[in-house]
Automatic annotation (TrEMBL):
The gene is pepQ. Keywords: Dipeptidase, Hydrolase, Manganese, Metal-binding, Metalloprotease, Protease. Its EC number is 3.4.13.9. Splits dipeptides with a prolyl residue in the C-terminal position. The keyword Manganese applies. It comes from Lysobacter koreensis. This is Xaa-Pro dipeptidase. One of its GO terms (molecular function) is proline dipeptidase activity. The keyword Manganese applies. Residues 9-155 form the Xaa-Pro dipeptidase N-terminal domain. It comes from the Bacteria. It is an enzyme of class 3 (hydrolase). Mn(2+) 1 binds at D255, H336, E381, E420. Residues 167-427 form the Peptidase M24 domain.
Length: 442
């Protein structure tokens, strides 16, 4: 799909949102849905603003991510209204007049100050579900975030429309292009900081646009799950590279991790290949009716098998999992839903009326527990890491003899491995957006 396709796909998307919003309002007993785009936030005792982050409930409707002070208003049976702030401002670039393929689907009111929005909001404030942050309050229009409304919308947001798939495919394409530039930087011996710059240059995105902070980790730094330090000096001896970095498009995210060995004929490369093979099989589990918790627990068993095959664990795969030893090497969840937010909402939602599906005992970091259905997009991101803190705990505990410490010492300088793809559940075989993205530009 090309970036032009949203024009064709968007009408169905905005219709679907209206259907969902109509039901959500009925559930909550409201007549109008109001969604402020959000406001700038300021640093404490300072006049500097934080990077603006749009209200996800707003960008669900519109590919607008740089428009603080605007509002979306939806009343069932009426065309959605966009109250669009184009401030009188000579300090900053003022948003251009609304244009593009989405404009015709809205009644648009241009305002010049944030306060003017109130003139365009419904008069009966008590009949409004207002979804936003407290700072977006405008007079009596104070965000109330009714649970019945929010639960419904967030639960159904897991089911992507064809428009959303197109946006996520484009976010993936951008990320893949940047990942290729980053790998080239690694092979050329760049520092983490310079690899990061190469990534941003290829993506044409920087920290304000990227869906999360880039994780660019050489050698042992790969063992820090969310390593974002960006050392400016390249290490003398470059052994490995873990990069977890995504891209944004029209408000949608991609989330991609790859791990590379400097010596492509060595044992660390063999370990990467083993995790990669297991990861592909995990991706194939993204099918309707599969409990995401099953994928997570199966991943532990598969990774425990690799730990055994590489002489790291002396226990059987089953015993490696049962004793908790697998969690020392794979200490996070297998993934999460993704879409408008890199960690998309409602990962634990039992139904569109609320409730929580619990995590399996002993797995506190799993971010999704839902049963997969067509339309959902999740990440699959297994890893094997050599984390000093966790290894020290293992060494002091009753299962210290379960592992070969010489083998661990051999792998420790490489940090760790994570392979992460964004995978869509369909009626048929899973769609691996990330692998498709890499294949397109192979
Ligand atoms: N990039 C954060 C994550 O993979 O969840
Ligand atoms: Mn992820
Ligand atoms: Mn990631």
């Amino acid at each position: 799909m090309s970036a032009a396709d949203p024009a064709i796909l968007y009408p169905q998307h905005v219709t679907e949102l209206q259907i969902r919003a109509t039901e959500a309002l009925a559930r909550g007993g409201f007549d109008h849905l109001l969604v402020p785009s959000g406001t700038l936030h300021y640093q404490v005792f300072d006049d500097r603003d934080y990077p603006y982050a749009v209200n996800p409930q707003f960008k669900a409707w519109l590919p607008l991510v740089r428009n603080p002070g605007s509002w979306l208003v939806f009343t069932p049976g009426h065309k959605p209204k966009l109250i669009y702030l184009q401030p009188f401002d000579y300090w900053h670039v003022v948003p251009e007049a609304p244009s593009g393929w989405w404009v015709e689907h809205f009644e648009i009111a241009i305002i010049r100050t944030p306060a003017e929005a109130a003139q365009h909001l419904p008069t009966a404030v008590e009949r409004c579900a207002i979804l936003g942050e407290p700072q977006s309050a405008l007079g009596g229009f104070v965000p109330n975030n009714p649970p019945a409304v929010v639960n419904y919308l967030e639960y159904h947001r897991a089911f992507k429309t064809p428009y959303e798939f197109a946006m996520m495919r484009e976010a993936t394409r951008i990320g893949v292009r940047a990942h290729r530039a980053a790998e080239a930087g690694f092979r050329a011996g760049l520092s983490e900081f310079d690899i990061h710059l190469a990534y941003c240059a290829a993506a044409r995105q920087d920290a304000n646009d990227l869906p999360y902070r880039n994780i660019v980790a050489l050698n042992e730094h790969g063992a820090v799950l969310h390593y974002t330090e960006l050392a400016t000096q390249a290490p003398g001896d470059v052994r490995s590279f873990l990069i977890d970095a995504g891209a944004s498009f029209g408000g949608y995210a991609s989330d991609i991790t790859r791990t590379y060995a400097h010596d492509t004929g060595g044992e660390f490369q063999a370990l990467i290949d083993a995790v990669d093979g297991a990861q592909r099989r995990m991706c194939d589990q993204v099918r309707p009716g599969t409990d995401y918790r099953r994928i997570h627990l199966d991943a532990h068993l598969a990774l425990a098998g690799i730990l055994h095959d590489f002489g790291i664990s002396r226990l059987s795969p089953e015993a490696t999992v049962e004793t908790g030893v697998s969690s020392v090497f794979f200490p996070h969840g297998i993934g999460h839903g993704i879409g408008l937010q890199v960690h998309d909402v409602a990962g634990f939602a039992q139904s569109d009326r609320g409730g929580t599906i619990p995590k399996p005992d002993g797995h506190p970091y799993l971010r999704t527990t839902r049963v997969l259905e067509p339309g959902m997009v999740v990440t699959i991101e297994p890893g094997i890491y050599f984390v000093d803190l966790l290894l020290d705990g293992l060494k002091r505990g009753e299962y210290a003899g379960a592992v070969d410490w010489d083998r661990i010492a051999a792998f420790r300088p490489y940090g760790g491995i994570r392979i992460e793809d964004d995978v869509a559940c369909t009626e048929a075989a899973p769609l691996n957006l990330t692998r498709d993205g890499f294949a397109e530009t192979a």
